[in-house]
Amino acid sequence: MMMKPRTFILLASLLGAKCILAESTLPEYMIGEYEYVSGDNYDKFLSAIGIGLFQRTLLAATSPKQTIRQVGDEIEIIVDIGIGGRIAQSNFKLGSPYVETTLKGDKIPTIATLEENKLKKVKKPDNGLEVEEVREFLDNGNTMNLYLSVIGKPEADALRVFKKKN
After folding, report:
1. Is CATH 2.40.128.20 the classification given to domain 22-164?
2. Which residues pair with 136 in a beta bridge?
3. pLDDT band at residue 93, thresholds of 50, 70 and 90?
């Protein structure tokens, strides 16, 4: 007899096993356009990942917009930094490794997962730094907190707060 996946998860939970259900669809409240409101420690984060002073100064002065979309099981995040029409675009499927291209053209192995109200991306560039991007959705998706961290460097943790555009 073949056990259905949800039955297995329930059984595993009853036995005390911790399971994360691999979802392929974002909740509707995560989809939309978000505008930058405030932030903390962004300059230290950018410095920790190797961004030079001139670029850090420019990036810190921007009010980026983020757009999150999903078509089928492919998710797209567009970050418009508002400097000369420059955008960062990321297309991926949850739980599937992919290569993300930075604004500088670097190609970084990345994986994205959905954990409750958080969309989490873990990036492992060749320089040995592991970078984590966690988008936490609060207030039914009207607020998105973007936590940026370099694993092993807590002094570089940054927070960027965004509000959903209505």
Report:
1. yes
2. 118, 145
3. very high
